[in-house]
Amino acid sequence: MSKIKIPKHSPSIDMTPMVDLAFLLVTFFMLAASIRNPEPVEVVTPSSISDKIIPEKILLVTIDKGGRVFLNLSGIEARKELIQNMSAKYKVGFNEKQIETFAYMTTFGCTMKELPGYLDMPAEDRKKYETKGIPSDTTNNQLKDWIFYGNIAALNSGKTDYENAKLEGKNPDINDFKPKFVLRVDGKAVYVHAQNVIDVFRDLRLNNLNFVTSAETAPN
């Protein structure tokens, strides 16, 4: 009796479910991701063996290698309060759109006079904008006012977040909601520029200042 020959053929795999899954993942990450505005300054920090993590809610002062000073404050509501206080102090008006832009912007470094026009620029143009940084000399120390009002705004915002956490039934630590101050200095910057900023924090009696460095391997 002759054997029955089964026809041979290559197996086929339906890739449709895999393609659908890939598009679902791409869609998820697109919707879940937050857009980060470009930073107007890049610095290369000196290295250290510290493993302390930068807190999320901070007032960050950055000094580039040329000594220019930049500032960033986390928290949308805190930034809105900050720019409104600075507006009243320096008699510089901002419209609602400019305040909204400032609230979602990252690091900036320009004078109060330049700021309205700076906020009206597209994000890419702000990155290319040539600025001398926030004035921090003895005759025009705008940085001191930014830090002073930034601290007040961060305290108010932190108090609100603390109360909300208690209402949610959590057991929050009030210290976690206080502003943290961070100084980030380019490794090639002249020390005197950093010293000037440190003096500002000291004059304001804000002594809990942290320094940003890049990690290096600890010696054996």
What does this structure look like?
The protein has helices at 16-32, 76-90, 96-104, 115-120, 123-128, 142-167, 191-203, and strands spanning 47-48, 58-63, 69-73, 180-185, 209-212, 214-215. It has 220 residues and is of the alpha/beta class. It has one domain. The strands form two sheets. It has a four-stranded mixed β-sheet with strand order 3-2-4-5, with helices on one face. A hairpin with a 5-residue loop joins β2 (58-63) and β3 (69-73). It starts with 15 loop residues before the first helix and ends in a 5-residue tail after the last strand.
How do the helices and strands follow one another from N- to C-terminus? HEEEHHHHHEHEE
- Count, helices: 7
Q: Overall pLDDT, averaged? A: 81
**Spatial order of strands in the largest sheet:** 3-2-4-5
Quick one: overall form? Answer: extended
Strand content: 5-15%
Helix and strand composition category? alpha/beta
Structure at a glance:
With 220 residues, this protein is an alpha/beta fold. The chain contains 7 helices and 6 strands. Helices cover 42% and strands 11% of the residues.
Labels describing this entry:
4-stranded mixed beta sheet; disordered C terminus; extended; 220 residues; alpha/beta; two-stranded parallel ribbon
